[in-house]
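Data deposition worksheet. Section B asks for the primary sequence of the deposited chain exactly as it was used as input, without tags or linkers unless they were present during the calculation. Section C holds the resulting structure in token form. Section D is free text for depositor observations; keep each observation to a single sentence. Incomplete worksheets are returned to the depositor.
Section A, Depositor: J.P.
Section B:
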Amino acid sequence: MGKGSPERLRLIERNRLLLALKLFPWSLLLLNPVFFAVRVAAGVFLAGRGAGETAHFQGWRGKLAIGWALMRGDLAALRLAPRILRKRAAIGRIRRLSPGELRRLILSHRLTLREVA
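Section C:
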């Protein structure tokens, strides 16, 4: 799967959501739609300039392929959510960091929009 593969985007999006569901504190999960919207807005901006990851998807059909891949990844993650939430509960029993400590750790090491796009 190359950089211009919609399947690659679908899997990245699915796995991003599953990882967040399994490990992120609820306070960050509630912010996930905001982070997603900012990421999509940055992608749209870069698409208009022919830059970033969107440059691998030529023309309007390529941009539609990006949107479709993200939507398919989100739907795939929703189908797997019950199983991931059970794993989350199991991890919660052995967790060593508090939700606040984990939130601070994640936020202090997050990628910038420039690194993501």
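Section D:
The chain has a mean pLDDT of 88.
The chain has one domain: 6-116.
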